[in-house]
Design a protein that fits this description.
Helices cover about 45% and strands about 25% of the residues. With about 150 residues, it is of the alpha+beta class. It has a single domain (about 5-154), classed as Jelly Rolls. The strands form 2 sheets. A 4-stranded antiparallel sheet has the order 1-8-3-6. A 4-stranded antiparallel sheet has the order 2-7-4-5, with no helix packed on it. β4 and β5 (about 65-70) form a beta hairpin.
Length: about 150
Amino acid sequence: MSVRADAESLRQIPLFRDCDTVPLQVMAFAAERQAFLPGETIIAQGKKATAAYFIMSGAARVLQNDVELGRAQPGSFLGELAMISGALYSVTAIAQDAVTAARIDTALFLRVADEYPDFGRSVLNSIARRLDGSVKELAQIRTLLVRAGNLSDL
């Protein structure tokens, strides 16, 4: 794929949807391509996040506490919030078949955000919208729990 095509693929990720093309091209160009064989771990729950992985080909199983949550297909972005915040990965992703991924490490992400402040603001706004949506969902769940009185009423 070309850098432009890779940048447009990154734009499909909600985190980068409102970002300008140039910083996405810089990130696509500088990202390290990594190959994973079937069964190899891409990210591991509980490990410190140092990078996020954009799945370019192949598929990975996504697990949390050994329970499968789903599959990461081409276009999936794994570990982005943990990478940005320096937190621990909240899931494990294991290559189901041969996977090629673009590895975007924290240093690269921060360099692009530093050089292109509008990019950083766009990402921050995207995270804020995501957090707001999560808070609203939790409020709805809380309301249901309060109304129910006990869990068997749900």
